Amino acid sequence: MTQVLPDRTTLPRQRGTGTRRTVPGRHRPGHVSTWLAAPSLAGLALMLVYPTVFVVALAFTKSSLARPLQRFTGTDNFVEAWESLAFAGSLVRSVVFAVVAALAATALGVALALLLHARGTRFGVVGTILLLPLVTPPVMVGVAWKLMLAPVGGAFGGLFAALGFPGANPLGDGAGAFSALVVMHVWQWTPLVTLLVFAALLGVPEELREAAALDGAGPWRTFTSVVWPVVAPNVLSVLLLELVIGLKVFDLVAVVTQGGPGVSTIVSSFEIFRTGMRGSYEIGTAAAETLVFGLVVGVLTTVVTLLRARAVRADR
């Protein structure tokens, strides 16, 4: 006779004590992951915590390049940095440079990513060519653009002459030099935005596009109602990255203008370099300027982070 087993759904549920049994020789996943992450955490502490503590110590002491940590000076270095007109001006120029460059690079990068995505889901040869400025060293970018903008023999000399500005020298006046640095920076870092936004566009569900097309939505309506809500958090993350890159610009200034003409292109990173590595080598003051500059960077990045969090909540 065949024995009929009762259905699992008809078996009475046994009430236990609520405790989970552990299998011998088995560890909790969290315990294992903590031990696996220990070497990385130790390396992070060594590479991040120690330099940060050392910079803070320099900022509160009389320190030079040859003799650091001579004596405690309290907030004297911060007062000197705050009263420095050169450093205050460099903060303003850094913020303006970073904001303008980040917005321009993000806008151009999004536009290029949309054009590339309209061609298909592959980045292709055109996309690869667009990445060439990104892999070019900043020093070479500065040298190449400086040669092209030279008033005599420069590649743009004929263009300026055709526009009615023969012998024009954009690097010869403050506004022109600052604008030229922004253009160079945007030219180099726009491909990064293009690459990241293109990857984000690949994550937009095709069903949403098809539904929008069935509803009669045009390209602009599809972008604003379907595509943008999905990729907006990614775009704001890229904007945050571009903002940080713009705030830490140093190579272009050092190679192209050395902060000139006058002080028109001295940004905070270059001013901190001048304070600590030129003249009196006031490392303590330079460390205080670094902390103040870090506070400004933190405020700006916090604003963008809050905007991104708002975009994520709106998408949900």
Structural overview:
By secondary structure, the chain is mainly alpha-helical. It has helices at residues 29-59, 76-83, 85-119, 124-130, 132-135, 138-148, 157-162, 174-201, 206-214, 219-247, 251-257, 268-277, 283-315, and strands spanning 61-62, 71-72. The chain has a domain at 85-267 and 289-315: MetI-like fold. The protein has a two-stranded antiparallel sheet with strand order 1-2. Mean pLDDT is 84; it is low at 8-12.
The CATH class of one domain is identified as: Mainly Alpha
CATH topology-level fold name of one domain: MetI-like fold
- The strand order across the widest sheet is 1-2
Spatial shape:
globular
Rg, Cα atoms, Å: 28 Å
Second-tier CATH architecture of one domain: Orthogonal Bundle
CATH-level-4 superfamily name of one domain: MetI-like
Task: List the defining traits of the structure above.
316 residues; mainly alpha; MetI-like fold; two-stranded antiparallel sheet; ABC_transporter_permease; membrane; transmembrane helix
Summarize the structure.
The chain is mostly helical.
Fold topology:
Layout: H1 29-59, E1 61-62, E2 71-72, H2 76-83, H3 85-119, H4 124-130, H5 132-135, H6 138-148, H7 157-162, H8 174-201, H9 206-214, H10 219-247, H11 251-257, H12 268-277, H13 283-315
Antiparallel strand pairs: 1-2
Helix pairs in contact: 1-13, 2-13, 3-8, 3-10, 3-12, 6-11, 8-10, 8-11, 9-10, 10-13, 12-13
Family: Belongs to the binding-protein-dependent transport system permease family.
InterPro entries: ABC_transporter_permease (IPR051393), MetI-like (IPR000515), MetI-like_sf (IPR035906)
Subcellular location: Cell membrane
